[in-house]
Amino acid sequence: MSQKSNEVAKRKLKSRSDNNAPSSPLQQSESNVLKNFPPKEPIEELIELVAERSEIRPELVSSGSRKEEISKARALVACMAVEETCHNITDVARKLGVERVSIYRAVEKGKKLLESSVN
Predict the structure, then answer these.
(1) What's the pTM value of the predicted model, to 2 decimals?
(2) At 8, is the pLDDT very low, low, confident or very high (cuts 50, 70, 90)?
(3) Confidence bin at 13 (pLDDT 50/70/90)
């Protein structure tokens, strides 16, 4: 659920409760979902985190550069954003300055990088 849709859902719940309508099981479950699943970590924060650990500037991660160290950092960001925080591929591609198909490849590359760093 995106941050924007999360806010919309909160407003809907608030407006329902303001009307003094009886609380239905559906409304209760919506409320529980909002409490249990906090908003996603923004892609910008992931970029900064990976850039800091890779010792490169955050702007370079989003530059579309094909240098190996920058490409690896971008792959890690793509993998974390898509696989772990469930951002959609289009948003990730837009933030990283690459095409959507590049994000698919970057996610696979990021998985391999993470596996090799664990071993």
Answers:
(1) 0.66
(2) low
(3) low
Interatomic CA distance for residues 50 and 58, integer angstroms: 8
pLDDT for residue 79 is more than 60: yes
Q: Which CATH number fits domain 43-118: 1.10.1750.10, 3.40.50.1820, 3.40.190.120, 3.60.21.70?
A: 1.10.1750.10
